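Re: weekly structure request thread

Next one in the queue (201 aa):
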Amino acid sequence: MPLALADRLTEFLDRAAYVYMWPLYPPPDTCSPERPRSRKAPDWMDVDRGFAEQWHPEVVRITPDQLVLLGAERREVLNQRLAHLEAHGRTPRVCLYGLTPVGEQPARSFAAARAYTDGKGWRVGADRCIADRLRRTDPKHRPGWRWVLHLIRAGHADGVVALTHTDISLHLDEYELQLDRVSHHGGFVALVRPEAAGRDQ
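Done, posted below.
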């Protein structure tokens, strides 16, 4: 069997199995780019800091908290997207996302996020409250989160609102990757309880 035909058959079977397992969420669009920009490559400031630490180890330095930095970058993207939407006279359309414990009604988990969006004047569609009950650490294995990315990528939503960053991922590297994916698709992430205290967004 030619390799190209085998690959296409495998892709078809994978997509069919995905639809069967999760009928509420369509399979992801495999033709869409899924490669967000990477922040792993150090910039000139990181390189300069590395040289300074190597040649002057006696100097006391304070390492910034990674979560605080991610929060600042998330808010920067959020403010840019909101400014762009406002300049075009558009009201932000958002999804509500959360991890719902087994046995708990999803609507209860979305109460705080709904109040947050109401206070901002953002629009939430009737079918835009998306919950996952899977406790896997990798968000790409959660059908609900994949559906959120699909909606943003397809232009049906401008962003996603979650209660805390742990709804997206407990692991900061994975959280950073998901922030990049949302931004890569032209969306934003808003949190009811931000990463650092005393912030508005």
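The longest strand covers residues 123-132. DSSP finds seven helices and four strands in the chain.
Next request, please.
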